[in-house]
């Protein structure tokens, strides 16, 4: 039986379960509205390491180990790791996860990597290539600022359209063992470029990609906004969320009553000086683990479309005057 749906999507005949997850965050995230929900809040932004990059690697290591501990599985039970981050050559993932000695697939989808890793891990488990697989991603405010913008010592003023990169890592163990949530389908996203060149306004750059993937999901599965309890984007922030809603209204769908954005939820914008909201690979990952999945487990939300969003720029492309394309990967998660 074919599991492909429409142009881009997959509906799993044997939907994999999200067996367990974990969320490790920094101090600022711990001070936000979701602070009490995270598995661990690290008060030291360096995590007792010498560099910001090593600190981010430690976030990933801790997240995977925490997920393993919570699941009562062992490293030997996990066949593959699917991981990525924002740093050049994904060094946060490679240096952070090497000690587990689990076969690793390195992924890059910018801030959509949480969605990309869940998609690939779900396909792998659903196809029978692994009984258990791990999807993990991370970001760190200081390592991201160092790579994409200015050294922290520069203390530049950020425009109001800018997002604050989340310091955090989320890990998810997918498998065949029954749990309270499962991934029933996915809609991988396409690259969408509206010609935005302002790297401080990534919400505007990513919103068209989110719109494209949501619309494709509706078409492929013959659904509408009425079929989901929530449609949750990754890190569009306040500005990108408004653009997304407007773009979908032009296509005949109004998601304003069911839309939620992880970048908006994770910080208190009025008191934490995060401007447009949160961003980074860790933003949607830790919010999914700490806030969204518990609501699915309890049955408060029966079916959601989880949609991490990414801005596909690099320092090279930006300095050469290229635009900022976006991408978004859709993951359908249902209560069992």
Overall strand count:
17
Q: Can you identify the CATH superfamily of the largest domain?
A: Stage V sporulation protein AD
Q: Major sheet: size, sense and barrel closure?
A: 7 strands, mixed
Mean pLDDT: 91
Principal-axes shape call: globular
CATH topology of the largest domain: Peroxisomal Thiolase, Chain A, domain 1
Helix percentage range: 25-40%
The CATH architecture of the largest domain comes to: 3-Layer(aba) Sandwich
Count of helical regions: 10
Cα end-to-end separation? 23 Å
The stretches of 5 or more residues where confidence is low (pLDDT under 50) are none
InterPro entries: SpoVAD, SpoVAD_sf, Thiolase-like
Pfam family, one: SpoVAD
Organism: Anaerosacchariphilus polymeriproducens
GO molecular function, one term: acyltransferase activity
Give an account of the 3D structure:
- This protein is of the alpha/beta class.
- The chain folds into 2 domains: 16-175, Stage V sporulation protein AD (Peroxisomal Thiolase, Chain A, domain 1); 181-335, Peroxisomal Thiolase, Chain A, domain 1 (3-Layer(aba) Sandwich), CATH 3.40.47.40.
- It contains 10 helices and 17 strands.
- The strands form 4 sheets. A 7-stranded mixed sheet has the order 1-2-10-17-14-11-12, sandwiched between helices. The protein has a 6-stranded mixed sheet with strand order 4-3-9-7-5-6, with helices on both faces.
- The two termini are 23 Å apart.
- The model has no long low-confidence stretch (mean pLDDT 91).
- InterPro entries: SpoVAD (IPR010894), SpoVAD_sf (IPR038369), Thiolase-like (IPR016039).
- This is Stage V sporulation protein AD.
- GO terms for molecular function: acyltransferase activity.
- It holds the Pfam family SpoVAD.
């Amino acid at each position: 039986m074919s599991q492909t749906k429409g142009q881009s999507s997959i509906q799993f005949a044997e939907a994999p379960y999200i067996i367990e997850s974990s969320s490790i965050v920094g101090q600022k995230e711990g001070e936000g509205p979701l602070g009490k929900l995270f598995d661990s809040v690290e008060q030291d932004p360096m995590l007792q390491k010498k560099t910001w990059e090593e600190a981010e690697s430690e976030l990933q290591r801790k997240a995977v180990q925490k997920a393993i501990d919570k699941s009562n599985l062992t490293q030997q039970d996990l066949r593959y790791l699917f991981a990525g981050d924002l740093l050049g050559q994904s060094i946060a993932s490679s240096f952070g996860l090497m000690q587990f000695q689990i076969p690793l697939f390195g992924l890059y989808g910018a801030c959509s990597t949480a969605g990309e890793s869940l998609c690939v891990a779900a396909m792998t488990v659903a196809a029978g290539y692994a009984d258990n697989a791990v999807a993990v991603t991370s970001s760190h405010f200081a390592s991201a600022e160092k790579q994409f913008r200015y050294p922290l010592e520069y203390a530049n003023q950020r425009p109001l359209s800018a997002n604050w990169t989340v310091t955090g890592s989320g890990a998810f163990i997918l498998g065949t063992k029954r749990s309270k949530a499962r991934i029933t389908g996915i809609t991988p996203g396409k690259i969408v470029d509206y010609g935005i060149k302002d790297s401080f306004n990534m919400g505007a750059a990513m919103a068209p990609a989110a719109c494209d993937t949501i619309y494709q999901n509706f078409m492929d599965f013959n659904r509408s906004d009425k079929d989901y309890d929530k449609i949750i984007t990754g890190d569009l922030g306040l500005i990108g969320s408004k653009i997304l809603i407007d773009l979908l209204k032009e296509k005949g769908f109004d998601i304003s009553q069911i839309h939620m954005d992880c970048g908006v939820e994770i910080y208190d914008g009025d008191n934490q000086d995060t401007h447009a909201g949160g961003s980074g690979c860790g933003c949607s990952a830790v919010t999914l683990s700490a806030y969204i999945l518990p609501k699915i487990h309890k049955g408060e939300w029966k079916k959601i479309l989880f949609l991490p969003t990414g801005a596909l720029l690099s320092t090279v492309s930006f300095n050469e005057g290229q635009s900022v394309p976006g991408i978004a990967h859709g993951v359908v998660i249902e209560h069992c």
